[in-house]
């Protein structure tokens, strides 16, 4: 687990898929196996359980509880395990946060409330109420393409005054806002959009919460280390080598092709849950070509 206060959750974290059995039920053994693989051989020093890629909207609280429990059992002694607890209901999110704390999670990921589109004052109250409910550090998740609502810089500045709101997973794609927030707060920024890993790190980000790290975690660790060392030539070279992987995994919804890749590699994944649909043979063929161009051979 991380002990660096500048990187409260580590350097490279995978937004882990939730392995399912062929009948759509949770594969708890598979979750343990995948978590151990990502940490012990996959270059990750942390995992996010039940973020977007974990298909959290279609998983019950009981299922999320069970998966978090087995992942903590598998890797909680050697990796930072962050529980996704954000919903568009503050009371429900608080319940999930308290449950995650009781199970032993090391931190919380709290996404912007979606669909109900609260004003910025509502966002601030939502985030601080969840942060007040446990003693765990909180990473806010700013992803307006999914939530319909960005977290504005002023809201982030005010949220950063809370002692337990310590980080942001940024998938907003607004590098100007990111730069201003870094200039005005001590929030630790994690790239939440793989195509922007390098620019976010170059602006002062401390790590990544990645989807492609299911496949290329060690190379992302090298990317973070190169930026940290000021070796931007090496960082650019690593980033360019990863471009086909970034593009390939996100030709459709990321979890669909990530699970397809993991299945091809013989790792636990299983199908996706509706309304998502599994990759077609044509999509898998394209994925093979994309990943091969990026040095990953299925």
Automatic annotation (TrEMBL):
Give a short account of what the protein does: Catalyzes the condensation of (S)-aspartate-beta-semialdehyde [(S)-ASA] and pyruvate to 4-hydroxy-tetrahydrodipicolinate (HTPA).
Q: Which reaction does it catalyse?
A: L-aspartate 4-semialdehyde + pyruvate = (2S,4S)-4-hydroxy-2,3,4,5-tetrahydrodipicolinate + H2O + H(+)
Alphabetical list of HAMAP family matching this protein: DapA (MF_00418)
**In this chain's numbering, which residues are marked as the site (Part of a proton relay during catalysis)?**
52, 115
Family, per the entry? Belongs to the DapA family.
Subunit and interaction comment = Homotetramer; dimer of dimers.
Q: Where is the signal peptide?
A: none
* Originating species: Blastococcus saxobsidens
List the pathway annotation: Amino-acid biosynthesis; L-lysine biosynthesis via DAP pathway; (S)-tetrahydrodipicolinate from L-aspartate: step 3/4
Which InterPro entries would you find in this protein's record?
A: Aldolase_TIM, DapA, DapA-like, Schiff_base-form_aldolases_AS, Schiff_base-form_aldolases_CS
**Where can this protein be found?**
Cytoplasm
Which CDD domains does the record cross-reference, listed alphabetically?
A: DHDPS
PANTHER family in alphabetical order: 4-HYDROXY-2-OXOGLUTARATE ALDOLASE, MITOCHONDRIAL, DIHYDRODIPICOLINATE SYNTHASE
Keyword terms of this UniProt record: Amino-acid biosynthesis, Cytoplasm, Diaminopimelate biosynthesis, Lyase, Lysine biosynthesis, Schiff base
Query: Which SUPFAM superfamilies does the entry link to?
Result: Aldolase
- One record GO biological process: lysine biosynthetic process via diaminopimelate
Question: What are its E.C. numbers?
Answer: 4.3.3.7
Q: Name one Pfam family in it.
A: DHDPS
MF-aspect GO terms: 4-hydroxy-tetrahydrodipicolinate synthase activity
Chief location category: cytoplasm
Looking at its record, which EC class is this enzyme? lyase
Protein name from the UniProt record:
4-hydroxy-tetrahydrodipicolinate synthase
| Active site, UniProt feature | 141 (proton donor/acceptor), 169 (schiff-base intermediate with substrate)
Recorded superkingdom: Bacteria
Q: Which Gene3D superfamilies match?
A: Aldolase class I
């Amino acid at each position: 687990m991380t002990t660096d206060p500048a990187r409260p959750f580590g350097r490279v974290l995978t937004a882990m898929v939730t392995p399912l059995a062929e009948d759509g039920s949770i594969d708890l053994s598979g979750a343990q196996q995948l978590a151990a693989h990502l940490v012990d051989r996959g270059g990750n020093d942390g995992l996010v359980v039940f973020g977007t890629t974990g298909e959290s909207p279609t998983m019950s609280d009981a299922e999320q509880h069970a998966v978090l429990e087995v992942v903590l059992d598998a890797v909680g002694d050697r990796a930072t395990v962050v529980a996704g607890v954000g919903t568009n209901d503050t009371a429900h999110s608080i319940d999930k946060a308290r449950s995650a704390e009781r199970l032993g999670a090391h931190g919380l990921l709290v996404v912007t409330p979606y669909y109900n589109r609260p004003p910025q004052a509502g966002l601030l109250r939502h985030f601080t109420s969840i942060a007040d409910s446990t003693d765990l550090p909180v990473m806010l998740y700013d992803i307006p393409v999914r939530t319909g609502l960005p977290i504005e810089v002023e809201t982030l500045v005010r949220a950063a005054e809370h002692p337990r709101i310590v980080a942001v997973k940024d998938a907003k794609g607004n590098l100007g806002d990111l730069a201003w927030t870094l200039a005005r707060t001590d929030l630790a920024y994690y790239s939440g959009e793989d195509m922007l890993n390098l620019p976010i790190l170059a602006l002062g980000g401390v790590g990544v919460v990645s989807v492609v790290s299911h496949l290329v975690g060690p190379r992302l660790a090298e990317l973070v280390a190169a930026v940290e060392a000021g070796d931007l030539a090496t960082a650019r070279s690593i980033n360019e080598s990863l471009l086909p992987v970034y593009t390939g995994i996100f030709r459709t919804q990321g979890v669909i092709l990530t699970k397809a890749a993991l299945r091809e590699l013989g790792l636990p994944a299983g199908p996706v849950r509706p309304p998502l649909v599994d990759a077609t043979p044509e999509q898998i063929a394209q994925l093979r070509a994309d990943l091969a161009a990026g040095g990953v051979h299925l």
